[in-house]
Amino acid sequence: MIGWAVPAIVVVGVLWWLRTGYVVVLVRGPSMRPTYRQGERVLLRRTTAGKLRRGQVVVVTGVSEDGAWLLKRAVAIPVGVVVRRLSPR
Hints:
This protein is α+β, with helices and mostly antiparallel strands. The protein has a domain at 23-80. It is built from 1 helix and 4 strands. The chain has a two-stranded antiparallel ribbon with strand order 1-2. The protein has a two-stranded antiparallel sheet with strand order 3-4. The termini are far apart.
């Protein structure tokens, strides 16, 4: 009985680590093209805001009406400044 217990505990531990450390996000819509296309799945590592860098892909929650996660590229980090370029249309 002990022969299967250790591998089972290891598998559960690895799955728990993956579940708490990573998330799979399904791309919906064209906003991340050409990097990601509609229907692709992206594996993202969970981190804190302090470790984010400009240009990294992030998941934003709580901003859409349907509660969906939004996949976006970080433009500014917490200590950064957002500069908006105005271009004639």
